[in-house]
Amino acid sequence: QVQLVESGGGLVQAGGSLRLSCAASGRFTGSSAMGWFRQAPGNEREFVATITWTGAYPYYADSVKGRFTISRDYAKNTVYLQMNSLKPEDTAVYYCALAPSNWNLAASRTYDYWGQGTQVTVSS
Known about the structure:
By secondary structure, the protein is an all-beta fold. The chain has strands at residues 2-7, 10-13, 18-26, 33-39, 46-52, 59-60, 68-73, 78-83, 92-99, 113-114, 118-123.
């Protein structure tokens, strides 16, 4: 069983920064990948960023490219999402998720395990 626990959300003004963390525990393999998704009220869950568990091949949604950075600390089993130049449209609940492989990582259906989510609110 895998558990994912997010932290780091909060309220920030537009242009500010936040760093989200996702601590993973349980059994998973080196072929796994971690992703961040977000869901705003009334919207579908959307892909934000992904990285393989070995730290290779970070990939971002166009809406966050150049502003967000995904990374992982292998020793701590933790994945981070550094969010800079935040905009009001970034407001959402952010979820981390674990996929069993490195394929089709922009699709939420690829992921088997999900965290509980952390709220990010960006004020204008």
